[in-house]
Specification:
The complex is a heterodimer. By secondary structure, chain A is an alpha/beta fold. Chain A contains ten helices and ten strands. Chain A has a single domain, classed as P-loop containing nucleotide triphosphate hydrolases (Rossmann fold, 3-Layer(aba) Sandwich). The longest helix of chain A is centred in the last third of the chain and has 16 residues. Chain B has one domain: MetI-like (MetI-like fold). Chain A: Keywords: Amino-acid transport, ATP-binding, Cell membrane, Membrane, Nucleotide-binding, Transport.
């Protein structure tokens, strides 16, 4: 499979029903507007990269999707679960949402008191009701998939940053999510370790996983994602097929941002 | 010198009985008080205002009032309200209250030491509030709190000597009783002190060793 183009042709993606829909998502902290009127819809198998300057609301948008940060306005729909801003979602709605969404954090957030294996197995047992044996078997497969089966009995502190982030990916995959959210997954890693994480993400994308990736990795955005969204000041300033947006941005704000990052 | 040793040996059984009562009242108070402290620590952070209010009152009274006042309140005060308890039960209520109030602060500090990302990761993988607490937050918080909790337990053993004031036959009461019948207060109080030290000094050393060990893996 070619590594330079996405596995799914753009036309194909657009014709499918959306897996995730955001309608008019807004988020304010006090009087500070972080997100304003974000609409986004994602088809199954689509890989979307969100790029933009710091403070543009990229991470907050991701966190609004799985309600770690409840949006102030708007609607999040995934499958047949809709969560409306303004009233607290029921426990069941939250569960339905989070079971379908895996999330990978910038700082990994592995559980330091549990072995690598238990990190991956915990939610399978508590959320999916698998037995420990079943969960551990699935976890071993997932760890093998990210190349870390030999670390299963170690504690996270014994693993490198890149390994920890790959374990975090395995942990997020353990619930069989329909969508994976990545919040700057390589920003806390030195470039070499970042590569091994990007390689795992690329494999996931090629395997047909639906992904939203907030990133500063411009090459990943251009080569792996189907669509690129550029955010600035809490709004989407430009979006489109990755090649087009990255090479030929239309808006002045997007041009300015891409110019700045490409000049480095 | 021989005379002193004979005196100590003669009264050692009674003193050991007293020590046993001291250890028992401390143990039972801790067994009730530490879980109470955990509940208070969680209640103080609760989203429900009445719950928070009650917890804060219980904690602040428990920390604000001297243990001796709490002891006298449960032993001499509660009978006025129609509730008569023997000295052991009164001692347990007062000391468990005191323990709950102080340990809630120790545990709260432990809870706050757990990075926020841990809670978010637990939520993101779909754990409900209780599971997140049980499997992710509390194990890490308690690991931080354990040395301080053990240190507090040692203090409580010493504080149990206050139960002398409510006629609980613990170590100091026994010493006082022996003193008042033999008029040899000095040597018997020294023996009481030695018996406390025999438990507290090794325990303190063990706690610092544990602290170093836990710190090494943090």
């Amino acid at each position: 499979m070619s590594l330079n183009s996405s596995s799914i042709p753009q036309a194909d993606v657009a014709s499918r029903p959306p897996l995730l829909r955001l309608d008019a998502i807004g988020k304010t902290f006090g009087t500070h507007v972080v997100l304003e009127d974000i609409d986004l819809s994602l088809a199954a198998g689509e890989v979307v990269a969100i790029i933009g300057p710091s403070g543009s609301g990229k991470s907050t948008l991701l966190r609004c999707i799985n309600q770690l940060e409840p949006p102030t306005t708007g609607r999040v729909t995934i499958g047949d679960t809709t969560i409306e801003a303004g009233h607290t979602p029921t426990r069941r709605e939250l569960m339905a949402l989070r079971r379908n969404i895996g999330m990978v954090f910038q700082s990994f957030n592995l559980f330091p008191h549990l072995t690598v294996l238990r990190n991956v197995s915990l939610a399978q047992e508590r959320v999916m009701g698998r037995t420990r044996e079943q969960a551990d078997a699935v976890s071993m497969q997932l760890l093998a998939r990210v190349g870390l089966a030999d670390k299963a009995q170690q504690f996270p502190s014994r693993c490198s940053g890149g390994q920890q982030q790959r374990i975090a990916i395995a942990r997020a995959l353990a619930l069989d999510p329909q969508i994976m959210l990545f919040d700057e997954p390589t920003s806390a890693l030195d470039p070499e370790l970042g590569l091994e994480v990007l390689a795992v993400m690329r494999e996931l994308a090629e395997g047909g996983m639906t992904m939203i990736v907030v990133t500063h990795e411009m090459r990943f955005a251009e080569n792996v994602s189907d669509r690129v969204i550029i955010m600035a000041d809490g709004r989407i300033v430009e979006q489109g097929p990755s090649g087009t947006v990255m090479r030929n941005p239309q808006t002045e704000r997007a041009q300015r941002f891409l110019h700045a990052v490409k000049d480095r | 010198m021989n005379d002193l040793v004979d005196f100590w040996l003669e009264h050692l059984p009674a003193m050991l009985d007293g020590l046993l009562v001291s250890v028992q009242v401390t143990g039972v108070s801790l067994a009730i008080g530490v879980p109470l402290g955990l509940m208070l620590a969680l209640a103080v952070q609760s989203r429900s205002k009445p719950m928070r209010g009650i917890a804060i009152v219980v904690v602040e009274v428990g920390r604000g009032a001297p243990a001796l006042i709490l002891l006298q309140f449960t032993y001499f005060g509660l009978p006025n309200a129609g509730l008569s308890l023997d000295s052991f039960a009164s001692a347990v209520i007062a000391l468990a209250w005191c323990t709950g109030a102080y340990t809630s602060e120790i545990i709260r500090a432990g809870l706050e030491a757990v990075p926020h990302g841990q809670k978010e990761a637990a939520e993101a993988i779909g754990l409900n509030h209780l599971d997140a607490l049980r499997y992710v937050i509390l194990p890490q918080a308690l690991r931080v709190s354990v040395p301080a909790l053990l240190g507090f337990s040692i203090l409580m053993l010493q504080a149990s000597s206050l139960c002398f004031a409510i006629a609980l036959p613990e170590l100091v009461s026994q010493a006082y009783l022996i003193g008042s019948t033999t008029f040899r207060y000095m040597p018997i109080l020294v023996l009481a002190g030695l018996l406390y030290a025999a438990i507290c000094i090794p325990a303190t050393i063990a706690v610092s060793a544990l602290e170093r060990k836990l710190g090494a893996h943090a």
